[in-house]
Amino acid sequence: MICVTGNGQCSVNHGAPHRCRKCRLERCFTMGMRKDFILSDEQKQRRKQRLELNRNLATRVSATTPTADEIDQVRF
Questions:
Q1: 49: buried, middle or exposed (CB in 10 Å: 19+, 13-18, 0-12)?
Q2: pTM value?
């Protein structure tokens, strides 16, 4: 990564949080973030696939679960 301004001292605040990725990452490390918390591209892809699978499973389960009204109709 290369600093946008070239001097490595970009402002990283709520008004401009994503302008310089290098300075933002350096600030994260300064605040205590550990490098081993950063996911590799492969890990990101696996996580994305796992989340998508869970969403699909949750959608299927909620589609087959009867509503409270349907349950009440069966009881009476």
A1: exposed
A2: 0.52
